[in-house]
Amino acid sequence: MEVVRPPTLVLIAALTLAGCRPASPKPGEYFGTTTPQHPGQTLFFNNGAEPQTIDPGLVWDSAGTNIVRELFEGLTRYDPRTLAPVPGMAERWEVSDDGLTWTFHLRDAEWTDGRPVTAGDFVYAWTRVLDPLSGAQYANMLWVIRNGEDFTRGKLKDPAQLGIRARDPKTLEVQLQYPAPYFLELTAYSPFSPVRRDVVDRYGDAWTRPEHIVTNGAFRLSEWRLRYEVVLTKNPTYWDADSVKLEKVVAMAIEDSHTALRLYETGTLDWLGSNARVPPENVPFVNGYADYMTAPRLGVYFLWLQCEKKPLDDPRVRRALNLAIDREKLVRYVLKGGQIPADHLVPDALLTESTGYVSPRGEGFDPEKARKLLAEAGYPGGKGFPKLSYTYNTDEAHRQIAETVQAMWREHLGIDVELYNMEFKVHLAHTETGDFEIARGGWWADYQDPSTFLEQLRPGAAQNHARWRSEAFGQALDEGLRSVDPNQRNAAYARAEQLAIEGAPIIPLYVYSYSDFVKPYVKGIYPNGRHLHPLRAIWIDEAAR
């Protein structure tokens, strides 16, 4: 399904950037207006797409997660400078010597309707995510909880046997399946947010509508204009409301990066947004502006291969497709935004300092080997190879990547693929249900551990859109998760990643970089490897008016 972007805005953007701007900005020069266009403490940013859902137990897309993070708060929350987990709904906690039992003591906090946040709200929310009937994409993230996996897989029916217990309204006891040094990072993430059972029971799937939703975060949901914008306003009942300066936040759902950049230049957007990007062809024109931000990001852009569909069920075919892509050429001549070529799933260069993990090397560009594997699979010179579909969501960079990969496969393997461009929500629906052959994918770290990337390929996990099943991979991943010794842990993770390289259910292309703009009057956005910026810490410098 082709989505046509507004031609006038795109043309204006192209003319402005290519025709009227110097190739090298002057030192200290800003891109576009530097005067706030919106009243008071109001922030406009581009969220990049329409959220698929804002249900914290079901959300998994980045657009939805950006909203959920502001509406709900878990036991911990992110420090805006370091992203280290700091007290949120829990004001303090203790952990047993074996690392398996955590006791959280909740602070006095309220929902937006004035009712207190209780330990029971967490028990309900976490059990709901683990329920096999929920279909939650992140259920496997909660398998760190005792009996969590067995409950999701239907081997255990009684939720009382889960390692979650409200000892009293202000005390939550959590028993883990294995020690997890990153557990406090998990409790800051969306699926670990509390949810009110009475609200879900009363309104069903409609509970997240603005007129029904009850939240406990720094902001409340005021308006949701589908395919246009989500409007948040400061939550006066938030326990830390005195430190929140923004009164209103408008998250726009602009999928076209040219349009978003033009709106930033004119001042409609104060911040391009962590889920947006500068179009690749415009990077040479904007690099060097004082308000431009770019750095490597803890995430990997890749292609899903649907391993249950022929001929992609043959690992030789999958490896051939992988080997026929010249990643160096892709990032240097097409993307041009500081991305790092990736031949393996875990961006270990950004994790080694914090975890000590080093990935096994993947299979790089080798067209001769690719042709040999394709011939062994029964398609010499590409003869007889079916025309596969390659789907991606609307975005200029995704289009350029798809066309480049398509050309490389044609040149090096003698095969062709058909490209399909579709709306983001439609693209997500196709990947969730396995209704694709080759699909654009990507993953940004949810926490600082290699497992955040490897968990996507766990056999039977909802996030495993490739439908790849390797019991050996699952066993190695589990061994890593259960290892207390960091060296043993990393060795097990490396074995799992090596199996993923050999099985090739996905094709890693590059480690993300972010290319972003933020107006000089927007304060509280601190560079970090996950490009995650809590809105509760952001504010507008009124003196700039």
Your description of this structure?
The structure is a single chain. The chain has 545 residues and is α+β, with helices and mostly antiparallel strands. It has three domains: 155 residues, D-Maltodextrin-Binding Protein, domain 2, CATH 3.40.190; 147 residues, Dipeptide-binding Protein, Domain 1 (Dipeptide-binding Protein, domain 1, Alpha-Beta Complex), CATH 3.90.76.10; 218 residues, Roll (Dipeptide-binding Protein, domain 3), CATH 3.10.105.10. Helices cover 29% and strands 19% of the residues. It contains 17 helices and 18 strands. A six-stranded mixed beta sheet has the order 12-16-11-15-13-14, with helices on both faces. A four-stranded mixed beta sheet has the order 1-10-9-8, covered by helices on one side. Strand 4 and strand 5 form a beta hairpin. Helix 1 crosses helix 7, helix 9 packs antiparallel against helix 12 and helix 16 packs antiparallel against helix 17. The protein is globular. The two termini are 44 Å apart.
Residue windows where pLDDT falls under 50 for at least 5 positions: 1-22
CATH superfamily label of the largest domain: Dipeptide-binding Protein, Domain 3
- CATH secondary-structure class of the largest domain: Alpha Beta
CATH-defined architecture of the largest domain:
Roll
CATH T-level fold name of the largest domain: Dipeptide-binding Protein, domain 3
Tell me the number of structural domains. Answer: 3
Helix content range: 25-40%
Strand content: 15-25%
| Number of E-type strands | 18
| Strand order, largest beta sheet | 12-16-11-15-13-14
Radius of gyration, Cα only, in angstroms?
23 Å
What is the typical, i.e. mean, pLDDT?
93
Question: Which overall shape is indicated by the principal axes computed on the Cα atoms?
Answer: globular
Structural class: alpha+beta
